[in-house]
Design brief:
169 residues, 44% helix, alpha/beta, globular, 6 helices, 5 strands, five-stranded parallel β-sheet
């Protein structure tokens, strides 16, 4: 493209992961897990997305909802701001869990692994062990994957920061 008032051309390229697909992957995992739990796809979920209005947060939520629209008995009943930060996600998780007692929610989808880890901590502190294994994240962080091996979280969709080097090569 040629910019107005500038001689020559400039090239712009965007290299990124597919956040919509990431949301879809978490959505299908949620459906599978809740169907296994209840014998049918149903349940109530909490979502703690990334920065509201950011394209990754929007695309991940849209991908999730694209799947869940086909399963009307699976509902997102509460949301809290996470902003991709563990501290803010933790406060959101604590507030939501205080309003939704045991037996009223079946899990949490985080905008990233930091949100998932924050939710796990809030659930542990509240004695909400029924939520273990029903927490979804994104990024593939080592700590989140360790919690997955322990059975405390369900899934993290990889979002590696290192793919750009390979792409450029």
């Amino acid at each position: 493209d040629t910019e107005p008032g500038r001689k020559g051309s400039s090239y712009i390229s965007l290299i990124q992961m597919d956040n919509f697909e990431l949301g879809i992957a978490n959505g299908f995992s949620v459906v599978k897990k809740l169907t296994k739990k209840y014998g049918e796809p149903r349940g109530n979920l909490i979502e703690i997305p990334g920065i509201l209005g950011s394209s990754p947060a929007i695309e991940r939520s849209i991908g999730l909802r694209w799947v869940l629209k086909n399963f009307p008995k699976i509902r997102i009943v509460a949301m809290g701001p996470g902003d991709w930060e563990r501290k803010k996600s933790y406060e959101a998780a604590r507030n939501i869990l205080a309003k939704w007692p045991k037996g009223t929610v079946d899990g949490m989808i985080g905008g990233n692994d930091e949100s998932g880890l924050a939710f796990l901590k809030a659930a542990e502190e509240a004695g909400r062990t029924e939520l273990f294994g029903h927490i979804w994240g994104a990024d593939g962080s080592v700590l989140f994957l360790e919690k997955m091996v322990e059975g405390k979280v369900e899934q993290s969709s990889e979002y590696s920061p290192f793919y750009a080097i390979i792409t450029l090569e």
